[in-house]
Amino acid sequence: MDLELAELPFPLRTYGPDGHWSYEDGVLTGWAGPRQDRFVSPTAEALDPAADAPRLLGAPVGDFQFIARVTVGFNGGFDAGVLYVHVGERAWAKLCLEYSPDVPTVCTVVTRGHSDDANSFTVDGSSVWLRVSRTGRALAFHASRDGKHWIFVRLFTLGDEKETGAALVGFMAQAPMGEGCVVTYDHLEFRPTWPDDLRDGS
To answer: Of 16, 22, 21, 23, whose CA–CA distance to 49 is shortest?
Structure first.
């Protein structure tokens, strides 16, 4: 299924399990089913083909900042709403608002063959603003409690400039341990620029 959002200059396509994606009045909604996740444990030999979660992705061109307020209907441990970057089957990254494992937390996962897993800061309530930025081979993750002051979370790459420049970017929902959760994304924004300073809150 293809979906066009008024705030984004590129179309989105569904990947993985059915996320029941819908978009109305500036609000995108998706649903993760029971035990749906995307994570390659460092102790695993390979990615289980069944280890997947609903994704809605598109291909922005050039430098960008991709922003959304994420709200998660938490039901189980590690339920999350995600901004997702995909370069290849074993090269992708997640910026999450996750119940990790018993308090809402901004978390990141970067997968280069196998996944790492890092917690950033906790959040009061079930919503937070998330931002993914790209320039050249560089990707940056930020999060914000109010959509104004941005907290630097991570700077990394998933490949060379050609690979990262062709990345798919968008949304994912996950419920690794529970029976499913609903995620909504609003205050969507796309800026065709890299942030002036990654660490000054702008």
So the answer is: 16
